[in-house]
Amino acid sequence: MHYPVGFTHRRLPLLLALSAIAEPASAVGLLGSAADFAVLGASTVTNAGPTSIYGDIGVAPGTAITGLGSVTQVGTVHAGDAIAALANFDAARAATALSTRPFDVDLSGQDLGSLGPLAPGIYRFASAAQLTGTLTLDYTGSSRKPFIFQIGSTLTTASNASVEVIGGDAHSGLFWIVGSAATLGTGTQLAGNVIAATSITLNSGADILCGRAIALGGAVTLGSNRVSNDCSGAGDLGSGRVDFGSGGFAEVLPEPGSWALMIMGFGLTGTALRRTRLAA
């Protein structure tokens, strides 16, 4: 076997160890390049009415973004370019990873607004999910675990529904993985990352603070909304809501198997470094 110039066999264990810990499954940064976006569609992104966006706006493989003239944005627009295409790919990969995790609680048939405060965990809806009223998500004592809602078909919120998040920190993650379409009712105040297999519609006054609207196979339709992918300062768009420095609730920690891999990797790295020093 031929090795690059300067490569020695003593460095092989070190390289293997580093590669083992370079990208543990389901680690922080799961959204990849999609984390830069606040709004990302597949076919089109349309807007009708004054809308504020903190983060990038993109569409791919489609190229149509309409209504930008009434959008106030802090970010960049990507219409059908390679950056938007990669973001769509990364978001789809993240959705697959999150949707296949074993769930903790089956909430099928229940209205999210009828539940008391929820603790971090993975919640499943076999088909549609509905939110009426207020849902409180409480990270207190478990801020390093994410909230993941696995929704088999549609997510629909009633007018003036809201999601309140308390007790989080920079490691907090919140994801709505929707099997088909998501529709946010008038005046809804949502938090977290909505990744829908088809489309997302935000009715007038519906906001996603703090998180993202990502439609993997269809359109994102906006009309007088606020969407922010980061609410640690200016990104709150005047809402006063915070994501505790988690970058729009995008943080996901490694699963237990990944922690073991990381620990093993660090051990191998330490051993390789010691051997390299002794050999030198």
Can you tell me about this structure?
- By secondary structure, the protein is an alpha/beta fold.
- It has three helices and 21 strands.
- It has helices spanning 12-22, 82-99, 256-279; strands spanning 37-41, 44-47, 51-54, 56-59, 64-66, 71-74, 77-79, 105-106, 121-125, 129-131, 134-138, 147-151, 155-157, 162-166, 174-178, 182-184, 189-196, 200-202, 207-215, 220-222, 226-228.
- The strands form three sheets. Strands 1, 3, 4, 6, 7, 8, 9, 12, 15, 17, 19 and 21 form a twelve-stranded parallel sheet that branches. It has a seven-stranded parallel sheet with strand order 5-2-20-18-16-13-10, with no helix packed on it.
- Helix 1 packs antiparallel against helix 3 (256-279).
- The two termini are 24 Å apart.
- 40% of the residues are buried.
User: What count of helical segments does DSSP give?
Assistant: 3
Overall average residue pLDDT: 85
The poorly predicted ranges are 1-28, 256-278
Terminal Cα span: 24 Å
Helix/strand class: alpha/beta
Taken from the alpha-carbon principal axes, the silhouette is: globular
Helicity, in percent?
10-25%
Percent strand: 25-35%
Short description:
By secondary structure, this protein is α/β, with parallel strands linked by helices. It has helices at 12-22, 82-99, 256-279, and strands at residues 37-41, 44-47, 51-54, 56-59, 64-66, 71-74, 77-79, 105-106, 121-125, 129-131, 134-138, 147-151, 155-157, 162-166, 174-178, 182-184, 189-196, 200-202, 207-215, 220-222, 226-228. Strands 1, 3, 4, 6, 7, 8, 9, 12, 15, 17, 19 and 21 form a twelve-stranded parallel beta sheet that branches. Strands 5-2-20-18-16-13-10 form a seven-stranded parallel beta sheet, with no helix packed on it.
